[in-house]
Amino acid sequence: MKELKLLYLYPDMLELYGDYGNIQILKYRMEKRGINLKLDKYSIGDPKPDFSSYDIVFAGGGADNEQSILSEDLIKYKENIKKAVDEGVFFLLICGAYQLFGKYYKGVEGNIIPGLEIFDYYTEAIEDRKKRCIGNIVIEAKVGEKETKVIGFENHGGQTFDIKTPLGKVLYGNGNKFEDKEEGFFINNVIATYLHGPLLSKNPDITDYIISYCLERKYNEKAILEKLDDTLEEKCREQLLNEFKKENK
Amino acid sequence: MYNSLVIIISKILNLFAKVLCKILKKDNGNMLGRIVKKLSPDILKYLKIECPVIAVTASNGKTTTNNAIRYMLETNGKKVVSNKEGNNMETGIITTLIKNCTLNGKIKADYITLEVDESYVPIIFKKIPLNTLVILNFFRDQLDRNGEVETLILKINEFLKTYNGNLILNNDDPNVARLGRANKDNNNVYYFSVDKYKYASTYQKEAGEGKFCPFDKTRLEYEYYQYSHIGKFKCPKCLYGNEEIFTKITNVDLENQSFYEDNIKYYAKADNIYTVYNFAAVISVSKIYNLDAKESLKTFKLDNGRNEKIKIKEVDTIINLAKNPTGANVSLRMLNEDNEEKELLFVLNDNPADGLDVSWIWDINFEIKNVTRIVTSGKRAYDIAIRIKTSGFDENKIEAYLDLEDAIKALYKTNIKKYVIANYTALQPTRRKLQEFNKK
What we know:
The complex is a heterodimer.
Chain A: E1 3-9, H1 21-31, E2 36-42, E3 56-59, H2 64-75, H3 78-87, E4 90-94, H4 96-100, E5 104-106, E6 112-114, E7 122-125, E8 133-143, E9 146-156, E10 158-161, E11 168-172, E12 182-183, E13 185-187, E14 190-193, H5 204-219, H6 231-248
Parallel strand pairs in A: 1-2, 1-3, 3-4, 4-14, 5-7
Antiparallel strand pairs in A: 5-6, 7-10, 8-9, 8-11, 11-12, 13-14
Chain B: H1 2-24, H2 31-39, E1 53-57, H3 62-75, E2 80-82, H4 90-99, E3 111-115, H5 121-124, E4 132-135, H6 143-146, H7 149-160, E5 166-170, H8 174-177, E6 189-194, E7 221-227, E8 230-234, E9 245-253, E10 258-261, E11 264-267, H9 273-288, H10 294-299, E12 306-312, E13 315-321, H11 325-337, E14 342-347, E15 371-377, H12 381-390, E16 398-400, H13 404-411, E17 417-422, H14 424-439
């Protein structure tokens, strides 16, 4: 039986917006196809994980307070994480985790939370605390061979700058910054985005891209994924895209 | 002078509003307050309040607890003014008080009891006096509207720094108990707690907030969890979690709907642990004001849509509100504690009052027992259907209908017992459509 290993970072701290759902969806779509998902968790106080030994690393969004506590912890593994990214381990990073993989996060008071500096984007909090990019969002993205409309929900005060390879073009919503044209960060083995929802719940194409990528990397052969019954997902997407189109007019 | 005039005008408006709302078939819960607030933004300051004001705030359980306090006071023969319909923001509270004041702004009552939205506590009680504040719990709730829970708690903490009235706190929620230290000079802080119940667990079953000590950021240790992050916790470093308990509920028996407090046996319609906590708060209030709660809790009925048991076309149907993960988890716990075969209807909307973000449904623990079919509806019928499917429930037994009438019709194709869970704006339309269907 084929198996993929996933490392879930800070499950008790980066879990504010139901992002854990992404793992449940990965597991669901893998198990339907007879692939096992082995899930390991890492949080503060646990023994040092070997990032390179995993196929997928996942981290979500958390409360501001908790994010500053864990950034100190995460930085201890900077070299190990960098190596894993270079070796092609897949990283799915949502919201706060997206920010932590950049150069830094600058808070409202000008305080700097250093990032992992794996990628060279950076994030600054918007001065007005009450102002946040909040709402439904749709982006047009190309992951692998497929172009797809990615549907999610954004809720972030941080504005992320210097993205050279965004995940997609914004069709509806804000994106990396207020009224931005672009959302997220994407390279072959990294999807970093502000999209909650959770991201994978309404975007089976993205989920299947991640699964194919990891299988191909691990087993060194073309992965052909069995088609699943996505009637509910398709109806959901159709309904929401129509709804947002109406609101946009 | 101007404000006296505003009160007179608003009294006249109230008369018109009643007629108007009847014609328009609209709920006038906030309308009067909205108009009055435009005319005089600080109108609350000019009302003459001479009786004690008791307020309840929380993420979950405000309406039930406020109504149980009101009912307890009334059972003790007191005249009470209360926002019993749950209009808990400033305009709703203005509406309640204006409707119940004399032409010169005096509120004629022995007590005022108010449920207040968490973020409105500092705003309302800058303007009117407060004698007792009850805080039940803080859970993640509508993050896109309320922001992070921590932000809300800090706002209330700031308000409490200068508050010296009675403060009744849930000792078993680390996010609530911490507020007892906001003002060291306040000698009127009272903690309530509920002893470990049958379904408590040693690990956290549902997403929650209490993970780190608010004072030194150490990870909290739990002896047990009652539900979500409510339970017996302790900070291993500073020993936070060791408060003196004013009201301690023991021997919780959900089957026979009874519990003990201070050697008195109470019978109350609490068939879930979360209502027991609400009643612990009610008993605390009764003790502070030297009143009796035993008789009133025995006859107190939960509000519409709060574990409401009805028959639709002869089929047993239980309706519950769930506006956040904790609410939904508590409803599903009750469903799991019932061994009969059942079918579930879940109605999910994403209107502004619900929060536009529905990702909270992924924080619901969907391990369900003896459920043979699930129907979903509401504006986000498909989102909740996908959520349930991913939890492992057979996708062929899930039916999603955007239209609520279609969903209800499909639900009652069988006469198996029904559980209905609806979120905030979905609840009343669901109750109404069920009744209409029943009459057909």
